[in-house]
Amino acid sequence: MGRPVKWSRDLHSIRERAAHARTETWGRVDLEELFGVGRVTAQTLMKVIGEVQPVGGAHFVERSSLLSFLDAMIAAPDFDQAFRDRVREADPPPSPKPLRIALPADLRSVMLRDLPAHISLSRGRLEITADSAVAMLESLALLAQAMQNDLAQVQAVLEPPARPPYVEDDDLRAFIEQMRSQRQS
């Protein structure tokens, strides 16, 4: 027989806190705090709760899945047995499929002016057209490389220049213009 689960006596208060929390998606750290457990136990809980969503290398569970799990554990006649059964039957969390995109050596020095026509930048706007997810990812990698190599030019295109503040007072506006013209010469 395994060790007793410490948080089992707090199921009702845990469920109450989860039901009234603002959090919709719960990560490992959120579960650590909610259940008062450590990292490994929180990871096990995520597996047992089920419907784990991988997002950017992290895993999350929806509040509805968490509440369903807690309701099932509260309703179970034998919590320890029900929990052990769920641990044994739990699927491993999904692992994201890595997309490996490698830029050819000749494109590692790409500049903004070298980008293909399907990648367009204008003031406050970026547009990429592609016929597949992989082609989109390749374009994003190419753009990232161009931004790294030519950031000043990319900023000049994307970021509109700051407009000078409008001054209503004619004398003050004339004085400011005079100061600007002296500074530029």
What does this structure look like?
Helix content is 50%, strand content 10%. With 185 residues, the protein is mainly α. It folds into two domains: 6-89; 105-176, no CATH class. The strands form two sheets. The chain has a three-stranded antiparallel β-sheet. Strands 4-5 form a two-stranded antiparallel sheet. A hairpin with a 2-residue loop joins β4 (119-122) and β5 (125-128). The model has no long low-confidence stretch (mean pLDDT 85).
Quick description:
This protein has 185 residues and is mainly alpha-helical. Helix content is 50%, strand content 10%.
Mean pLDDT: 85
Annotation, overall tally of beta strands: 5
> Going across the major beta sheet, what is the strand order?
1-3-2
Tell me about the biggest sheet? Answer: 3 strands, antiparallel
The radius of gyration computed from the alpha-carbon positions, rounded to a whole number of angstroms, is 28 Å
Helix-strand string: HEHHEEHHEEHHH
State the shape: elongated
Blueprint of the fold:
Blueprint lengths: L10 H10 L4 E3 H8 L3 H11 L3 E3 L2 E5 H13 L3 H11 L29 E4 L2 E4 L4 H17 L1 H8 L11 H15 L1
Antiparallel strand pairs: 1-3, 2-3, 4-5
Helix pairs in contact: 1-4, 2-3, 3-5, 6-7
Keywords:
three-stranded antiparallel beta sheet, 2 domains, two-stranded antiparallel sheet, 185 residues, 50% helix, single chain, mainly alpha, 8 helices
